Amino acid sequence: MAFPLFSSNIQIKHGSCQLYFAHSVKMRCILLKVLFIFSFLMQESCHPATFCINTSMQVKKSNMLILEKPLAEGMVRTCYFHPQDKQKCVKIVKDNKDIKSLEQELQIYHTVKKQLSPFICHYDNQLVETNKGPGLVGELICDDHGKVAQRLSDFLETDAIDQNIKEQFDAFFKALLDNRLYFTDFNLHNFLVFEQNGSYRITRSFIKLEVLFPFLWRKKTVRRMNHFYHRIGY
Question: Is there a single domain that holds both residue 152 and residue 228?
Answer without folding.
Answer: yes
